[in-house]
Batch of 4 targets.
Target 1
Amino acid sequence: MNQPKRNVDAQQTTWLKIGDVAKRTGIGIETLRFYERSGLLSRPARTEGGYRLYDTEALDTLDFIKRAQALGFTLDEIKRLITESRAGQSPCAEVREVVRQRLAELDEKMAQMQRYRDELAETLQTWDARGQAEGHFCGLIEGAHLNTDKPASTPLKRRRK
């Protein structure tokens, strides 16, 4: 493997090519390049031939990104957290507040889903008792008294900064 151009002690650092990082993390090569372009991942060292070489810090960063995504954080939020951390600030208070807000949003979404489920169950019970219904397409649907605001399809609101 060619030595990286960056001024680093190549003897004490384990360097991984982009394909190796992709295999170890399960993150695609194009996604890794995107993370680098968008500032989520620090620019890697390069060989004389231009190949990207990642150190173990990159693996730690990618693990953090995956965990934060699993918790519902957006890439913009994750980038902000990484930036704050690299600047020596602890973003933990912000993380707790974001998760607290997401839980409140999920609680509301679940309440909406429960109301929608109850309404569907009641409608089906009425239809089962009624049997067939004449109509232009299907009298059951045409005669249904449902809230057409479809709470089941409204996405969670993400906080933007």
Target 2
Amino acid sequence: MKKILVPFIIIPFLFLILVFNTYALEKTSGRIKLDLHEQTGRFSLSYLEDVSTGTYVPLLFAKDPETTTLYVSMDNKIYSMGDSTFFDQRVLQENSDTVSYIWESNQIIVTESFSLIKSVKSALTDGLKITITVKNVSEVTKKVGLSYLLDTYLGEKSKVHFKTDSNTVINSETYYTSNFPSYFVSPYDSSAFGGLEVMLKGPGITAPEKILFANWKRLKDNIGNYTVQNSRNFNLLPYSINDSAAALYYNQRSVAPGNEFKIILALGAYTGSFFQGNTEEEATSEINKLYIQTVETPDDTTNVEASLKTDLIAVEDLIAKIDEKLKYPEQVTAEEINLIRQIIDNLGQRKQLYEKR
């Protein structure tokens, strides 16, 4: 159980904070509910565990949404988004599917966009895609990095705080800087779903350069310079007991004036499926283009040489797409396989025609 010892004198102030945080912009779809806490620049994410009773289970620690925080590092400083007075904050409802926090300064603009998504095998919305865009609006090159502190809690109820895709159990401080698992889970003992799933790589996902699992308060207090001790558990006596968290780090990169970079995360309920950083439609769009080019476009009988060169380019593109899909075979959809088969069959038929000419 998460325990933080707080002096009695500040309890009234905590009450005011809780009241302040009740004002939220809510979006629901399928079995997911997203709350944006506009005053603090934070979010809460919940999964509909029981449809009959309308019971939602928070996927991240929800009693204080401010414990899950996006940090931006720039010019040897770290800014806590939603807290820093360096940025002006506003909310933008882009469309019915996407809502964003926008933090503006005279040097960079940070946009954090939220979209409710489906996992690959799900018929209903069960996850969240977060797109973070950083644009340099100054006149000099800026070095900017990001880190996201996720205050997990579901695994704290059992002896298993985290599990990876290979069923590796993480119950003490751990870090990865290479050979990342595809995802990690903060487990939850329920017949409806298995906990919070956070993708670390996969189609459309921006892989972090580093991920840390540690006590939440230790991570928060040392977010920019943390030293892992593998023998240390998730306690920080006497302040924070059985309080685990995960931090994803995206290294600083040089951003020229007027340029921007983008980071994409995906997380949601673990149901044995996987989340992608792009929608199923986006994931198959490039293969669809190849399909249109090779299957739906008639062969140019007037210029065989040009048609042959076009098909050779299509073959190279298809090989590249297949190689990309083979990196994550478990996430390949039946629609993609069907399209690829039709493209290969059609190219085979064209090859026979070329040989006869």
Target 3
Amino acid sequence: MAPDPFRFTAAVPLRWVDVDVAGVVNHAVYWSLIEQARFDYFAQLKLVEGDIPPFLLGEATIRYERPARRGDALAVAVRTARLGGKSFEMQYEVRREAAGEVRLGASGASERLAVAKALLVWVDAKLASCEIPAAARRAIAAFEGIGERG
């Protein structure tokens, strides 16, 4: 079995409101789970000041593979796949975790429910796109084991 390319996984609890009358997690909820995991990822890398991430979402896609249901222990695996000048690409897997396996920082035994990717744009205080700061670029590249550009 190939090693998991995701070096960060965050537990993302479901709320009662996230599930429809059939007991299935609503499709839009997946993005909320992904956004929470993305925030946790950048908080772990110490790249978030307060509650405001230094980037905006530019583009996002998701492919749903299996439904999540009430009572599932869910986690989102997060990785930065590519760093550009002002933007970067992230990839995600929403996973149903085996009981007792959800933990922050690494993935355990799981079943993939959805895959997603997003293009994010680094912004300044006025929300204008700007170069990804060198310190942030180094921290992300070092954590992911990727090049600082490309």
Target 4
Amino acid sequence: MTFPPSESRPGRLALLNVSVAIIAVILTAFAAWALRHVLTPLILAVFLMLTIGGLERALRRRTPLPKPAILPTAMIGVLTLFGLAIWLIADNGAHIVAESGGYAARLDVLIKMGADRLGVSAAPTIDQLFRQTKPEHYIAGVAGAVGDIAEKAVLVLIYLGFLLASRAGFGRKLTELFEEGRHAEALTVLARIQNGVEGYIWLQTVVGVLVAAGSALIIWGMGLSHVMFWSFLIFLGNYIPVIGVAIAVMIPTVFGLIELDALWKPAVIFVAMEIIHFVAAHVVLPRMQGDRLNMDPLVVLLSLAFWGVIFGVAGAFLSTPLTVMVMAVCAEFPATRGIAVLLSSDGRPFASPPEP
């Protein structure tokens, strides 16, 4: 019986370890997809908790608030911002629905203009097109989606409350869970995840404010209504990498066609906001992202598709933070360090220690 040379065994063992790691990643992804309805609210709650923690540390460093008041202030601040966001969407959505009659009349005019250009003699009205789509078929689906969002929002708040309540004992659990040598490594991984997620939040918030502010000036200058609402949608879309803002700027453009008299104004809105988005996405964002997240731009795009398939819209919003977490964990194990290297921008995932 012939045995392979001893020199080839380490190479084969390394290949086996990598294969096992890849299979583990695939199985983990499948399990996350199967449990997405349970995990999505929990992941959103963890994201909110990290946001509150980042604001808490910023308040501790930069404000004279007494220590007992810092965490409640951070919680109230973050939850107030989310509440205002929900109110802004609901209030402006109600106004848009109330103005839908005027929008329908303007759409009829646009359809007639397009039919005349194409030589169509009998142009359908928006009411006729709406009836042909049989909207009653979609009412149940829309109602189910709204109910699902409300249910997930309640679960997120419940999970967030329990996560915040269990923070005090988390350090003791880590001490008991890991051996003395591994305990420091676990804390290092958690610190890297925390810094990466907080860096992403700060990055997207700064860039989103810049893009939304520029878009607000353009929308206001062209005379389109609901400036704050459209600007907020563009700001929110900035948290979806690559395509979020590109899609968000289309919405006020379409409403500009309906609301504004001159057709050149929606064109100016679209072109100007796309220029702002291009500068932010291809000049500002890559420089800031390379310095803070050390993630390859292609990985950002692939992670958007991957996490979007698993967790839906929530996965699209959290695709980059989730990938940062995966990269931090993979970098700590020899079998999966190659995955972390591929995910990183310069091939050195977390080469430097995290900032305190």
